[in-house]
Amino acid sequence: MSNNSLAKEKIKILLLEGVHPSAVEELKMKGYSNIECISTSLAEEDLIKKIANVHFIGIRSRTQLTDYVLSHAKKLAAIGCFCIGTNQVEIKAAQKRGIPVFNAPFSNTRSVAELVLGETLLLLRGIPEKSAKAHRGEWHKSAAGSVEARGKTLGIIGYGHIGMQLGILAETLGMRVRFYDIETKLPLGNASQASSLKALLKEADVVSLHVPETLQTQNMMAAKEFAIMKDGVIFINASRGTVVDIDALADALKSKKVAGAAIDVFPVEPKGNDEEFISPLRAFDNVILTPHIGGSTKEAQSNIGLEVASKMAKYSDNGSTLSAVNFPEVSLPGHTGTSRLLHIHRNQPGVLTQINQAFAKHNINIAAQYLQTDDQIGYVVIDIEAQDSALALRELKQIDGTIRARILH
Ligand SMILES: NC(=O)C1=CN([C@@H]2O[C@H](COP(=O)(O)OP(=O)(O)OC[C@H]3O[C@@H](n4cnc5c(N)ncnc54)[C@H](O)[C@@H]3O)[C@@H](O)[C@H]2O)C=CC1
Ligand SMILES: O=C(O)C(=O)COP(=O)(O)O
Fold it and tell me: CA 99, CA 327: separation in Å to the nearest integer?
């Protein structure tokens, strides 16, 4: 957002990809009424046109906020990812423009864990294939290839919020849980950490992926990894489409190395429900294909709407950046009776000294000051008497290293 405080009804908020109505309710309750909701993501050209005029944008996993798109977002104050993943946003590019990115790190984790558990049971019994056959009029009553979950080994790759919950749920079915993670993690229940990815892949009857999209996780499941797995393994991916080499998975299904799979995320996903879904996996009856709905439950979406909208409103009202993924975190008290100024700058020595000297020169009294920095940027919040705010803002903009400065309500 450029300079001075805007009246709340002038603050434009764009919510894409069918963000839950709880977000709109929350924003309205906080006084924000200028909200546009669109049920799909937008093609880059349309996104650029829209983003040029908004102060806040809310997206889910589909909208790509690249450096290029953000270069058109001159008024943008903050981004809300109404999901866990923030890989769809070039968060460093947002950071260098002084734009915090918020997400909902927990609210849909249980939904994903429940879905994966259900898929595990169905795949161990060959249900997707049997069901597809029955739909075509084929009766396939047989115990061949059908096994109980009890006593089988679940290999979880990425033992974070989702992986851990999945592990606990799977143990209630009597599964043995092993996990692989780049960090040393506290095992919950009777789970235990494998010494390497290879060790995990060798012993798992079911492999389930729960890692974020990063450079290291790109194609982390490819032909070499499928070759290490047990014959007849069950394979599940509800993390990100880029983590699996989809052609290698198709080959492993053809050769029966993989007996069944459940895939929720894809290297390329349709922009909306009207677009055709294209994938080589459509050919396999023994693959459960879901349209990236791991976190799409009423409970999760409603909680996410509330959570992220309230983080955006807190930033707009108060300057609080608590739980921003790319920004120094500041949790701030209210500022009744004073004007609050936000100053975002490149993290270089002497910025605070410059600010304090500039304010002292004009006898601007500082009622409260908060500073947090990370390796790239510094974020200073200053409360002053309302009558000094215009002058103080002018001074702040002169400070060497300033990325943006503004006055809150
Ligand atoms: N299908 C869907 O609708 C949903 C998908 N997701 C995806 O699931 C991912 C995981 O979610 P959470 O469990 O909440 O994240 P988290 O951040 O709590 O856990 C991720 C775990 O993966 C580990 N990890 C990172 N890089 C790794 C690597 N190269 N090898 C092994 N482990 C690695 C981390 O150390 C961490 O323990 C999200 O990043 C998101 O992409 C999340 C929610 C819904
Ligand atoms: O939370 C995540 O990271 C997800 O993948 C869920 O994405 P969605 O909000 O369903 O587009």
Answer: 8
Distance from the alpha carbon of residue 316 to the mean position of ligand 1, in angstroms: 29
Which one is catalytic: 210, 240, 335, 406? 240
Q: What is the pLDDT of residues 303-314, one digit of tens each?
A: 999 999 999 999
Q: Please list, in sequence order, all residues whose beta carbon lies within 8 angstroms of the beta carbon of residue 286, skipping any fewer than 6 positions away.
A: 123, 126, 128, 129, 253, 259, 260, 261
CA atoms within 13 A on the CB side of 246: 20
Residue 269 bears catalytic tag: yes
Task: Considering every ligand atom shown, identify the ligand nearest to the alpha carbon of residue 82 and give its number.
Answer: 2
Mean predicted confidence (pLDDT) in 46-54: 98
Could you say which ligand is closest to the alpha carbon of residue 115? 1
Q: pLDDT digit string (tens) for 231-258?
A: 999 999 999 999 999 999 999 999 999 9
Ligand 2: distance of its center to the CA of 397 in Å? Answer: 38
Report helix angle 109-124 to 161-172, nearest 10.
40
| Candidates 3.40.50.720, 3.30.200.20, 3.40.630.10, 3.30.930.10; CATH matching 109-289 | 3.40.50.720
**346 flagged as catalytic:** no
Q: Is the pTM above the cut of 0.90?
A: yes
Which of these CATH numbers, 3.50.50.60, 3.40.309.10, 3.30.70.260, 3.40.50.300, describes 337-408? 3.30.70.260
What's the pLDDT tens digit per position in 125-149? 999 999 999 999 999 899 999 999 9
Query: How many residues are given for the chain?
Result: 409
Q: Which residue ranges have their beta carbon within 6 Å of ligand 2?
A: 60-62, 82-85, 108, 292, 295-296
Of the residues 17, 119, 129, 269, only one is catalytic, namely 269
Host H or E run for residue 96: helix 91-96
Task: List the chain domain ranges.
Answer: 1-103+297-326, 109-289, 337-408
The predicted pLDDT at position 1 comes to 44
Architecture of domain 1-103+297-326: 3-Layer(aba) Sandwich (3.40)
CB-ligand 1 contact for 241 (6 Å cutoff): no
* Model ipTM over 0.90: yes
Q: Is 385 part of the annotated catalytic residue set?
A: no
Q: Assess whether pLDDT exceeds 50 at residue 268.
A: yes
| Distance of alpha carbon 360 from alpha carbon 81, whole angstroms | 40
